[in-house]
Specification:
Elements lengths: L1 H13 L3 H11 L5 H12 L6 H12 L7 H12 L3 H9 L5 E6 L7 H9 L3 E6 L6 H4 L1 H19 L1
Parallel strand pairs: 1-2
Helix pairs in contact: 2-3, 3-4
InterPro entries: AB_hydrolase_fold
Protein name: Alpha/beta hydrolase family protein
Organism: Pseudonocardia zijingensis
Length: 161
């Protein structure tokens, strides 16, 4: 698990300039005004997108949403799941029985082996790697996501018969 986290952090940093990475670190260590919060969110989410021409606009649109982030919950969840061994995690997921469709953008800075392993452990899972997409594939490759969702709908319709 830690290897995935360190890989993600390294990939995320690689997509930021040195000045952006320094500013992100600076903002993370302080209480932030709303404008600084938006800046911190933009720098945090900028690496999630593949296309640098649209990344800043999409990160800004998300960052300016006036909703509070529950960082305490995120840290608690990360600490809890980070303590799980790989076998613990796989046994938890293998107990899930509903059909699952996992979509992962090939350009997502988060390592693909986590979602791919999850798909292999679940009893009814389909894994879809979308080329040219990052962490928000519905924005970067909406046509590819639409095809996956059409397959999900067709599967659900067949199950209902």
């Amino acid at each position: 698990m830690e290897d995935n986290r360190s890989t993600y952090v390294a990939r995320k940093r690689h997509r930021l300039s040195d000045a952006e990475a320094r500013r992100l670190d600076e903002l993370a260590q302080q209480d932030r005004s709303w404008d600084e919060e938006v800046e911190w969110r933009i720098l945090s989410w900028l690496p999630d997108f593949v296309d640098p021409m649209t990344a800043r606009d999409w990160a800004r649109a998300d960052a300016e949403t006036p909703l509070r982030l529950n960082l305490a919950c995120n840290r608690a969840l990360s600490a809890e799941t980070g303590a799980w061994s790989e076998s613990d995690e796989q046994s938890r997921w293998s107990a899930a029985a509903p059909p699952v469709w996992i979509i992962h953008g090939s350009g997502d800075p988060r390592p693909i082996d986590g979602p791919r392993t999850l798909a292999s452990v679940l009893t009814q899972a389909d894994f879809h790697e979308l080329p040219g997409a990052g962490h928000q594939p519905w924005r970067e490759c909406p046509d590819l996501v639409a095809k996956v969702l059409a397959n999900v709908a067709a599967h659900a319709a067949n199950q209902a018969l």
